Amino acid sequence: MTYVFSVKLWLVSAAVAMCATTASAQIVSPQAPKPILAPAPVREAAPLADDPKLEARLVDISQELRCLVCQNESLASSHAELADDLRREVRDLIRQGKTDQEVKDFLVARYGDFVLYRPEVKPLTWVLWFGPFLLLLVAAVLMGVYLRQRRQQVQPAPLSDADRARAQKILKA
Predict the structure, then answer these.
(1) What is the pLDDT of residues 63-104, one digit of tens each?
(2) What is the rounded CA–CA span in Å between residue 43 and residue 60?
(3) Which residues of 116-128 are buried (b: 16+ CB within 10 A; e: fewer)?
(4) What angle (nearest 5°) sits at the alpha carbon of residue 63, between those of residues 59 and 65?
(5) CB distance 69 to 30 below 8 Å
(6) Nearest CA among 106, 105, 111, 109 for reference residue 68
(7) pLDDT (mean) for 13-41
(8) What is the sign of the dihedral through the CA atoms of 85, 89, 94 and 96?
């Protein structure tokens, strides 16, 4: 509870400090000239290839490839420098006349199955494909064994006639 309170207090004090800094920065003497801010020039990304079919094919292929730096992004959506290099490499392979599968095979040979978002089902990737289901099955079996043992421990032992007579005697007293 005190930890949450101290975090809230810290956030409030940080916000107050930011407001105070902003307010003091806005106080300017009347003699000081006001800075003129020029609008930033609008820059558009230049196409990297003259052939739109090549670029469309590059996008299709790179959406199926994983960025080796970001790991949770496709090669098409990554902004890492290595992703730029890999896209350039894929573009060069496409220009050489390689098929989509040949491009993927080249990258898998170089970086391993990790570069593919959906690795092929083969003995080396069985753990990736079937591991989660196997773990779920093992967890279900272990849960069933645990619950069965617990049920056996919780069940009351049947009373003998002598125990039942003693209980009746205690209840009547």
Answers:
(1) 889 888 887 888 888 888 888 899 999 999 999 999 999 999
(2) 25
(3) beebeeeeeeeee
(4) 120
(5) no
(6) 111
(7) 50
(8) positive
